[in-house]
Specification:
Blueprint (H helix, E strand, L loop, with lengths): L1 H30 L8 E12 L3 E12 L10 E10 L4 E10 L5 E16 L12 E19 L2 E17 L24 E13 L10 E11 L9 E14 L7 E14 L7 E3 L13 E3 L1 E14 L2 E13 L11 E13 L4 E10 L3 E8 L4
Antiparallel strand pairs: 1-2, 2-3, 3-4, 4-5, 5-6, 6-7, 7-8, 8-9, 9-10, 10-11, 11-14, 12-13, 14-15, 15-16, 16-17, 17-18
Subcellular location: Membrane
Main location: membrane
InterPro entries: Bac_surfAg_D15 (IPR000184)
């Protein structure tokens, strides 16, 4: 109940902020009608949210959106600076960016993130039990960067580099939550409980015809990467990661109004070699399989899909319904049609910047394994 009350308080606060921002913008426009639109629009917001991975959290976010040059065929670029602390003594700071250079000749995207995280670790597998969660904690710094060059409209190729520095790994309780077995992390190789650096690079291909990268109404998206984590690059573990992310968006009903959008996503992650527990493919979280705790199900290989129906309601409010299915397995040949975990729910969107489709996302989901979650985030899940 406390989480729901906090969510209601946050919603009212955000509605007030959005109203104030819009009225201020309208007032400025009325006084200075001849002034050119700003090339950089910045939303700075205090944030309060709650989700299964964090409990109640508080912090601040800065969300700039801009377009290089006057060519409107170049899609808007965006970034996000976010910092928060939670009631579970977690802390995080991150910078993410997605940049189209003039004429979309290059696409540069990536993230730099720091987490100080006590988390629930359920071990490895597709059918872990809720009562057997283990308490562990660690600190991690993640750097992920890609630079892609356009070959033709919508098609980009280039390279990606990823670094993960995991340290201060700790078993907070020697037993699982139901006290029936040792903490799951104690069953992993001892080397994985020591400070770990993974470093890798590889090729990347992107096909992206979305009309807007924050909240697409129509278009297609295909992102494929291959990463080699190698000791020659400073990595403590050697393994490969192949990943694809395919999405489709279409307008239902009136093409002019674009009030109803159907979105779908198919995601695959496949590993070879020796993969430490933190780098295994994971189901759950605020983007894929909402309603399932992030990392509740993890293993070497992953397949997941989700669909979402997005509907304009009134004023700055939009509603969504979503559903997803996903599975993790040790080998690709182990995937079975009847073993998919399921999740689904509903959500609300509050448009902060309607022109660039910058929004605040509130979702509630339920999922397999007696899971549920309330999520506060920025922009669409996919």
């Amino acid at each position: 109940m406390f989480v729901l009350r906090a969510g209601a308080t946050l919603l009212l606060t955000l509605l007030a902020l959005a109203t104030h921002a819009q009225s201020a913008a309208d007032s400025v426009a009325a006084r200075k009608p001849a002034k050119k639109p700003r090339r950089v629009k910045v939303a700075a917001l205090p944030i309060v949210f709650s989700q299964p991975e964090t409990g109640l959290a508080y912090g601040a976010a800065v969300l700039p959106v801009w377009r290089f040059g006057q060519d409107t065929t170049t899609r808007s670029s965006n970034a996000r600076v976010l910092a928060y602390r939670t009631q579970r003594k977690q802390s995080s700071a991150s910078l993410t960016h997605a940049i189209f250079t003039p004429g979309e000749r290059y696409f540069i995207s990536g993230e730099a993130q720091y987490f100080n995280l006590p988390i629930y670790y359920y071990g490895v597998g597709n059918d872990t039990r809720k009562s057997e969660k283990s308490d562990i904690s660690y600190r991690v710094f993640i750097l992920n960067q890609r630079v892609l060059k356009r070959l033709r409209p919508g098609l980009f190729v280039g390279g990606v580099y990823r670094l993960t520095n995991l340290y201060r790994i700790r078993v907070d309780d020697p037993l699982t939550d139901d006290a029936t077995r040792p903490n799951w992390l104690l069953e992993r190789p001892e080397r994985e409980r020591q400070p770990t650096l993974t470093s890798g690079l590889g090729p990347a291909l992107l096909y992206d015809t979305r009309d807007n990268i924050l909240s697409a109404h129509h278009g297609n998206f295909l992102d494929a990467t291959a990463l080699l984590m190698a000791k020659g690059l400073g990595s403590d573990f050697s393994f490969t990661r192949l990943q694809f992310d395919a999405r489709h968006y279409r307008v239902l009903g009136s093409k002019e109004a674009e009030h109803t959008v159907l979105a779908g996503q198919l995601l695959g992650t496949f590993h070879g070699g020796t993969v430490p527990f933190r780098e295994l493919a994971q189901l759950g979280g605020e983007r894929m399989m909402r309603g399932i705790y992030e990392g509740r199900f993890r293993d070497r290989q992953l397949l997941a899909a989700q669909v979402e129906l997005r509907q304009q309601l009134f004023w700055r409010l939009r509603g969504v319904l979503f559903g997803s299915a996903g599975q993790v397995q040790p080998q690709v040949t182990d995937f079975r049609p009847g073993q998919f975990n399921l999740a689904g729910g509903a959500g609300l969107r509050i448009d902060v910047n309607r022109q660039d489709r910058l929004s605040i996302r509130i979702d509630y989901g339920v999922g397999s394994g007696q899971s549920s979650g309330l999520y506060f985030a920025f922009n669409e899940a996919f």
